[in-house]
């Protein structure tokens, strides 16, 4: 599991761990031995991606959680289905690994693995480049080699996974920022020094969320040996696009084989018409109500001078949760018997 890499012990002296990594391909083992310190970084990047994925889909039927999270490979069975939101999951994981490697390259601890990326020659006297650019080239290259090493041949799922890996890496690269500092007395910024830096990762998540909504439905053309759009009126995908093979997966009911938790027990918002609304999330299973209470400030008064004092009030609230359809079916069977 990629997230487990963050807790393994890797060093330039202890590369024997690389041979013991279950599920690693030959190329991944070679990369592990050449860049042992970056294995922990990959684990951190995968975990960062999982957290961001859960944030992006926190109010959807599938919230980036899956069954048996401790044992299931992050990029294993769950993403091999190629439908629903799983192409987003692969892209965000690729982006997380890329992002974390780039950030690690700025630290002295990893200087032997990735050197400072060359900055452009000074364009003119008013613009100077300083320090090191974030090592975007190395980060995207390493993520590409490591993640794509799992994909064998040029079959449909392999091509889909490689494309979504690439889209995640390109999202990080496309959102690169130009950071400049002005050096002047008058405030006219007559001289400035600049460097390239990557954006905060939540912005990458937002970017890929938009790409998810415009993802291209594809099929495998055996004659061309490539993925082509199902809708012939749609342009072929670019390196920035997400693609998928299946139209949808059923996220309503728990499916251990596909790693889907289902919606049973998920809290929903009865007043919302969005994806978090009970009407949208409950999948026709119904929902039940639990009574609770919240404590908050009330009867606040301004006191001269200068403070605001409040009382604490308790309010009764209702919480709504999706029903478990499997339990309902078991009850019906018992009643029939």
From TrEMBL:
Domain of life where this protein originates: Eukaryota
Subcellular location: Secreted, Extracellular space, Extracellular matrix
CDD domains named in the record: Wnt
Record-level Gene Ontology MF annotations: cytokine activity; frizzled binding
Biological-process GO terms, alphabetical: canonical Wnt signaling pathway; cell fate commitment; neuron differentiation
Keyword Secreted on entry: yes
Name listed for the protein in its UniProt record: Protein Wnt
